[in-house]
Amino acid sequence: MKRKVGYTWRLREVMATRGIFTATELVPLLQERGIDLSASQVHRLVSGTPERLSLQVLSAFCDILGCSPADLVATTAENAGVRKTRHRRPPHAVGRGREAASPGRPDPARRVSPAYRTPEQLERWHKRTCARCGRFGFFAAVWPDGPVCHTCECRAMRLRGRCPECGEHRILPGLRPADAVAICTGCAGFRPSYACSRCDQESQLRAGRLCTRCTLSDRVAELLDDGTGRIRPELVPLHRMLVAMKNTRTGLSWLDGRLPNVGAATRLLRGLGKGDIELTHEAFHRLQPWRAAGHLRELLMSYGVLPPVDKQICSFERWLGEYLAGISVPDHEQIVRRFATWEVLTRLRRRATRESLTPSARYFASGQVKAATEFLGWLSDRGRTLGTCCQADIDAWHADRGEHERNRLRGFLLRGFLLWAMASKLARPLRPPAQTVTRNAPLPEPERIALLGRLLSGHDLPLRSRVAGVIVLLYAQPLSRIVRLTVNWLCWLPRRVAP
Ligand SMILES: [Zn+2]
Ligand SMILES: [Zn+2]
Ligand SMILES: [Zn+2]
Hints:
mainly alpha
């Protein structure tokens, strides 16, 4: 009887489990192992199924990916001419859970890899029930206690400590069969080594069998390269501090970014390295996406690459640039720009020298700028300008607003603009809307004592809320200050006993 043999090339799947997703990442790793293949040759090996392959290249792949040849080539053999009688499951029954195919959608097996023709093959070769969490799905590794999913692998590899078996300080992904206590890889009998090929530190390995720290170091160094093969000199402290971070996995996730800003940090770092982004605060105001740029700016300030500026001032300046660009009347834009730059920003800077600014100070500043713009627009609708504005206009504007808006917001916010306009001779002498602050009646003493008693003895409330409440009731501190308190601020001084 004739036998029909076949094989499946699984390079792409094994690469994916090691966090390598493109052929170009493999080229330098192959070169390190003395194999010079062009990017397109490697691409063909990754995307297609090669008919022949040198054993040297196969060995290099095994070394890079930390796997055996059997992981890369899955062979099949069956009697030729015999019709398959194996029961094939309907597509919607295959791939339990999230991967389940529904009629009309492309078959998940085909989306995962063209090498798997049927969902049944996908399930048989790539999915297992995880020995740790019991879920059925793609498995990342086969450990002595069974196949483990990616989540369980990551969680186990993060655990570091003294192994109860051998007493060494190592990663503890293994489980002692008797009592499921975490033990080191050596004592658990792990076949592949998890030591980094460069620094020998044990960790979850990435491309080229490198630990996360070495991978992060390489990636950041490559991004900050100024085109001469070395890191732009001003950015060396940034590289040093990023590589020294405690949780390097967070660093790598930050580089990759999350939706919708995938790769934002990578783009910004590359721009910095190449010198496309200047190392000034002004350059950072214009960068997008602003959240990623803001975080990078904070890092650069904390490492001394950029001069330190209050976070709220950075945020206000960035917002101001965009806001001013959106004002359509040139005269208004000019006045608002002067007001914002010479009055609002100066006041914020002065205040920042004394204390760190709160978000509410920043929102008040932008509120003042918005109120000024709104007032200028309202005046021009009445056929007036700031120079011809008279007391009747101020009163009419005031009368237009409701009680709440007048007292709490617009009137309050506009006052600063009017005072500035008069001081800089842009407006005639006017009486700005009075700033009335309504004060609530103070809490009666018995009620305050009763509330204090409830906070001190009420164990049903969260401790943080109780502490915050006691500070309010005893010291009348505003909430804006209390939310900035950390545990270190609240220290217990033992009372000295009098002799
Ligand atoms: Zn699991
Ligand atoms: Zn051990
Ligand atoms: Zn390493």
